[in-house]
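Following up on my earlier message about zinc ion. Here are the inputs again, as you asked, copied directly from the submission form:
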Amino acid sequence: MSERLDLIIRNGSVVGLDEVRFLDIGIKYGRITHVQEGLLLEAEQEIDASGNIIMAGMIDVHVHLNEPGLGDWEGFASGSAALAAGGCTTYFDMPLNGVPPTVTVAALKMKLAAASGYSHVDYALWGGLVPGHLDDLEALNEAGVIGFKAFMSAPGDPGEEAFREVDDLTLWEGMKRIARMNRVLALHAESEAIVSRLTREKQAAGEVAAADYSASRPIIAELEAVNRALFYAEQTGCALHFVHISSEAAVQQIVEAKRRGMDVTLETCPHYLALTDEDLERMGPTAKCAPPLRSEAEREKLWEALRLGWIDMISSDHSPCPGELKESLDYFEAWGGISGAQSSLEVLLDEGYVKRGIPLPHLSRLLSYAPAQRFGLLPRKGEIRIGADADLVMVSLTKGYELKAADLWYKHKHSPYVGRKLGCKVLATWSQGRLVYEEIAGVLAETAGEWVKG
Ligand SMILES: NC(=O)NC(NC(N)=O)C(=O)[O-]
Ligand SMILES: [Zn+2]
Ligand SMILES: [Zn+2]
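Thanks, got it. Here's what our run produced:
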């Protein structure tokens, strides 16, 4: 009896870890069963991917959804819809910007209750390392967080129950405990001492324009925090992951730590690769984030670092908010965080492949394989291979378009990428073999995304 598959995606240019080949992909029960030329089997449904590329779905390790508590900012349904439309099939939700923040098992359960049944694609959940909650780390670990996240500078936090930055002692003690659990600590690395002082000085002088905000968070603040965190990690043996690294010098520090044998990775975000401090001035606080967008020269240095293989992965750092919070003329007052979840893959392929000719397998590793490897999702996710979840995205590299606010699936339809011309387009996304997004139909109604336990 000949086997009948659920889905075959034929003739796509399949992006592997090292090469791109014309292959057919067979799928049954949500898993990839075949990856080969001229697959002779039949399936319930066949897709002709000729002329398009097929990649493993993006794994976005850095997304802030605001449920529970602030679902009117962004919920699991809207946030994951945007991710699906952008070719992301697994995301990691950050432990802050919801109320309560995910710093206890009770809060983790509330996250899970808000997410389960509402997410279009699969998700994992970060736990928080904050002062006063060291004794919650172990239980959070056992409950299945993917890792822990701490801020070294004060986070913008919308809740009344604030997610606080760590003091040095909490950082050191937290690292000791997280090392024992064999988990990764993700760090927002900016020096609170430097940033808070410069912020107060600027505000006191009434200097609150874009350039003032940028100047209040200089690269040295990132370097100092990275340096200090590496020191504590060396003392404790804790594995680190630096989020949203914005400068080439910080990349260098981390690369050197790797060469010394440290267990450390870093991500940067599409906005540091696509936008600059001049865009912040031109666009207004829509493009405000921390660390801030840097100079054009810094942006090109980051691309060079990426080419050299010094950047481990790309994440969106999607940090949404209602549009009103992006309208202030005071750049310190406006919400810090970019709505970018839907655009990561397209912006990276447009800037990286279409404009700079960086090979697709390299970009695919940054989007999918490296995050899966770092956070223990291999061999189930992160790669197009037999036995893996059929988490796939089909992209046209010829169908360019201009992103419009109406294209966005966010609850609040603002993004610094609105109005941007992109030289590629996500045509379809599959999560465990289910079509979750298609260019014409949009995001499909079914919300069967599953929790990926750490
Ligand atoms: N509270 C936040 O969402 N913070 C985020 N905001 C940014 N990046 O501007 C972050 O990751 O630091
Ligand atoms: Zn951050
Ligand atoms: Zn963030």
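One observation from looking it over: The chain has two domains: 4-54+390-443, 57-374. Hope that helps, and feel free to reply on this thread.
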